């Protein structure tokens, strides 16, 4: 069940009505039932499509939840028993004994955490990466000795709820989060359905206070929530769904559409992905807001970034902070890394030595980021390309500083616009690995942008043969102007509408809703309405 289906929209409307009709204490249990129903429908849909197989999405998420609940409970019990023992023996226990007791408890908690993470991440890896590993092994084997692929279907949203579960377990281990004693509340956190299409990846401490709260019916929540929902549907259905067929056409017939066509595909996909992904997140945040639930923001005007590092602080924010907090920092300060850092400084000098561990941890982060996006080499290379560009930029910072010390253009409007355009083009070029899904082909096609320039395609009608008509281009151009204008207003003022602009807000939203109904690309022929990030 996807956000753009009539079944989903009707279900959410019914849920919102029931949510404010039932007693306040029954509201989070209602959300749990709705969330589990979301997965049940996903099971039924897959079973109907492929009667000889079944994809037990519910089983996978329930196993992950049970592991998280038991592991967190055991970690909490170890902490409690340790505190009780020290408190009961505080008059007689020595500092050394107290230290030994805490060390033993930490070791036990680490063992429980490790088992929990292995099971949770193991389910993700087995379902998502088994056939990828087999394919790579088979590339070294002769015919007749190749390993047979398994008929595995990736459970819906497994990447998202696995990451949320792991962050919860790690935070419990670190003492940042208290174990949730109510298993049904934890199950709701793991399975909250709006997050399962494409995130954001929420932390327990951030989501829980509002997820389990007894919310009152408030006009501001309804208004703000519907604003985000309608804005999200506009970006998804009017823009992303309309431009997606053109991207598919340009990236499929690579013999015909090369050179300047690749540049067009690059820009189209940048616009497509932005509207698809941010549109989905807007719908997620909006649905949650209607229910009185605050979900973490996942974007902050990423196409206004002036470098790739800033871009990744603005794009898919919750994913970036997850990798930073749970991979980069732990790896950077682990025992082997500290030893390597010391050795590097002694043998390679302070200048190089201090970079070694940072660069290795960053390499691991970007490798896993790519792998998280998909079990294919194009995603891995995409992640590594981001890493290479960011590292080169960091190394060139002293040269940038010298240049700007002599040429005073750093804070000018023109140079700022240049930085934004440069970042958008560079990120869009790296993202072509996602468009062509083949590493050698991507390098080849991107290369033709510089060797086969043909500007005539903008005037000879060639761009009318890729699934878009004149009216489509008019709609896309107007939509681009609207989105850019809204983004500029938000960048300058922080908000597009103030709370007191009730009439203006709702008139514009009503107009936008009419635009979606009239100009939205949906129905037969648009099965591509599945959100792009849903595949991850």
Question: Average pLDDT, to the nearest integer?
Answer: 90
**Biggest β-sheet, characterized?**
none
Helix/strand/pairing category? mainly alpha
Number of domains: 3
Low-confidence stretches at least 5 residues in length (pLDDT < 50)?
A: 49-53, 523-529
Strand content: under 5%
How far is the first residue's CA from the last residue's CA?
16 Å
Which overall shape is indicated by the principal axes computed on the Cα atoms?
A: globular
Helix content: over 70%
**C-alpha-based Rg, rounded:** 26 Å
List SSEs in N-to-C order. Answer: HHHHHHHHHHHHHHHHHHHH
- How many helices does DSSP assign? 20
Blueprint of the fold:
Blueprint: H1 6-21, H2 27-49, H3 57-88, H4 95-138, H5 158-174, H6 183-191, H7 204-211, H8 219-252, H9 260-290, H10 308-314, H11 317-332, H12 335-348, H13 350-373, H14 377-395, H15 397-406, H16 413-430, H17 432-436, H18 439-451, H19 470-493, H20 502-519
Helix pairs in contact: 1-2, 2-6, 3-4, 3-5, 3-6, 4-5, 8-9, 8-19, 8-20, 9-16, 9-18, 11-13, 12-13, 13-14
Question: How would you describe this structure to a colleague?
Answer:
- The protein has 536 residues and is mainly alpha-helical.
- It has 3 domains: 6-216, no CATH class; 218-295 and 446-536, no CATH class; 305-430, no CATH class.
- Helix content is 71%, strand content 0%.
- The protein has 20 helices and no strands.
- Helix 1 (6-21) packs antiparallel against helix 2 (27-49), helix 3 crosses helix 6 and helix 8 packs across helix 19.
- The longest helix is centred in the N-terminal third of the chain and has 44 residues, at 95-138.
